[in-house]
């Protein structure tokens, strides 16, 4: 699962497979898409064969995140757990975080699903422990173009006026906008999914 092939078709992102020729693309959806899109049911998913020219954009997804304040990459999705690898360079820090050394300079770990995520908020540089959740090890990430480009998806949960949404959309691979914060963005609209 180190990389996953994704595509945007009619403004919606889907997991895809390419073949048998380089012009053939199969779109996969976990839930039934609208009937007018012509997806067919298959075992455990919905699928639609298209030609590459019908695809808005195609990219490789690199699932990266932060585990206990340090960068990591998701190697495998094991249902309730994720198999992750440490992307830092400090072997002592990796060992302290609970990673095991599988090779010289390579550290891996199994962790609960949901443990790998980041956030940014100009008003909350860190998150407090609450009655039901403990995110006290998380810190607000800088919204650099490199940081934004490293994520599979950027979720906008609050419409802060201090954000440069043009820059966020330009740098991100995919933006899920739950607040219509990107309404004034005119370029790269194909990257935006409003919900």
Characterization of this structure:
With 195 residues, the chain is mainly beta. Among the domains are: 57 residues, no CATH class; 49 residues, no CATH class. It is built from three helices and 14 strands. It has a six-stranded antiparallel beta sheet, with no helix packed on it. The protein has a five-stranded antiparallel beta sheet with strand order 7-8-9-11-10, covered by helices on one side. A three-stranded parallel beta sheet has the order 12-13-14, with no helix packed on it. β2 and β3 form a beta hairpin. The two termini are 27 Å apart.
The total beta strand count reads 14
Compressed to H and E, one letter per element, the order equals: EEEEEEEEEHEEHEHEE
Give helix % range: under 10%
Largest sheet: 6 strands, antiparallel
Spans of 5+ residues with little confidence (pLDDT < 50)?
none
Shape: globular
- State the end-to-end CA separation: 27 Å
- Helix-strand makeup class: mainly beta
Mean pLDDT: 81
Oligomerization state: single chain
Range of strand content: 35-45%
Number of helices: 3
What attributes characterize this protein structure?
mainly beta; six-stranded antiparallel sheet; five-stranded antiparallel sheet
Q: What secondary-structure arrangement, pairings included, does this model have?
A:
Blueprint: E1 4-9, E2 12-18, E3 24-29, E4 40-42, E5 45-51, E6 57-61, E7 64-67, E8 70-77, E9 81-86, H1 91-97, E10 100-103, E11 106-112, H2 145-149, E12 154-156, H3 165-171, E13 175-177, E14 192-194
Parallel strand pairs: 12-13, 13-14
Antiparallel strand pairs: 1-2, 1-6, 2-3, 3-5, 4-5, 7-8, 8-9, 9-11, 10-11
């Amino acid at each position: 699962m180190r990389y996953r092939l994704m595509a945007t078709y009619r403004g919606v992102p889907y997991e895809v497979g390419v073949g048998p020729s380089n012009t053939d693309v199969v779109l996969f959806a976990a839930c039934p898409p609208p009937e007018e899109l012509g997806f067919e049911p298959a075992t455990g998913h919905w699928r639609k064969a298209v030609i590459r020219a019908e695809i808005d954009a195609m990219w490789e997804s690199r699932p990266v995140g932060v585990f206990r304040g340090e960068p990591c990459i998701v190697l495998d999705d094991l249902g309730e757990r994720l198999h992750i690898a440490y992307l830092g360079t400090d072997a002592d820090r990796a060992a302290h975080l609970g990673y095991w050394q599988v090779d010289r300079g390579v550290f891996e770990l199994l962790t609960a699903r949901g443990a790998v995520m980041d956030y940014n908020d100009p008003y909350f540089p860190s998150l407090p422990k609450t009655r039901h959740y403990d995110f006290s090890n998380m810190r607000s990430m800088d919204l650099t173009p490199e940081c934004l480009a490293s994520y599979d998806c950027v979720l906008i949960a609050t419409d802060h006026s201090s954000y440069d949404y043009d820059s966020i959309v330009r740098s991100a691979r995919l933006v899920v906008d739950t607040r219509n914060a990107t309404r004034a963005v005119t370029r790269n609209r194909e990257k935006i999914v409003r919900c």
